[in-house]
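On clarity, I found the account of how folds are encoded harder to follow than it need be. What matters is that the chain and its backbone geometry are given together, residue for residue. For the editor and my fellow referees, an illustration may be useful. For illustration, here is how one protein appears when written out as sequence plus structure tokens:

___
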Amino acid sequence: MSTYPSTTNPHYLLPSMLPHSETYFHLIFQEFVSRSASSSNPFVSFYFDPEAMVGYDDGAIRVFDMYSRSCSQIIRMHSAPVTCLCVSEDQLILSGSTSGSITISDPYSVQQVTTLRSSDGRGIRTLCLNPSSQLLFAGSAVGYTYCWDLRTRKQLWGKRVSPNVIYSVQHMRGDRSTLAVGGIDGILRFVNQNDGTIVSSCIMEDKLISSPSGSFQRRKGRRLPDNYLNIDIIPTSARPSITCLAVGMKKVVTTHNSSDIRLWKFT
């Protein structure tokens, strides 16, 4: 596993289809927020060319045009703050909130399609939609991972996979088997998409293998035993909080509150 230092504390990984650069996106996003007439605070953003969707603590989503730099639409989604966003292939907006509900809305008709409810009163923190299976996954503030079938709008399972907040759930494009889960306890978990059972849990060793250029470090990863419960005895240096993750072929990229980016390689 490789560790790369970062000058900021990243909380999300942006899509690769940004029009110019991440810097451009951040500058435009900041300008959107400063130009917004709302006194509410932005909580989360999602980019879907050519629009940026921003969730606010007043429960609304504001849609900004990336090129005209203006707010084109305000969609009321929740009575509580919006905490996470994603967009389906048919342009439906899915958003989670601190109330524990997930609302699906059609931005063209400005109508709510449905509301999905979890048993977690402390809120949904992250969403991930698998377009190939039409399954929606969510991570909660108390360590639960949920799965809904969007075709039937029914919850298929809900499992507590972590004792603390889950900040990110992701899967590899087209994969219907495994879901990567990361959160405040810093353990990278892999969960079965079909039933929510934990397949494996990983951390990195404290021992440094090499640091050839000073810009990155190599460390050895370690899989924890099944049903491992003694998380508190693992040094936090081996498990800094995972704020976001992305999944590739036998690789996972994670960002951390320690302001570094880690590339996990699996064989």
About this structure: The mean pLDDT is 82. Helices lie at 22-35.
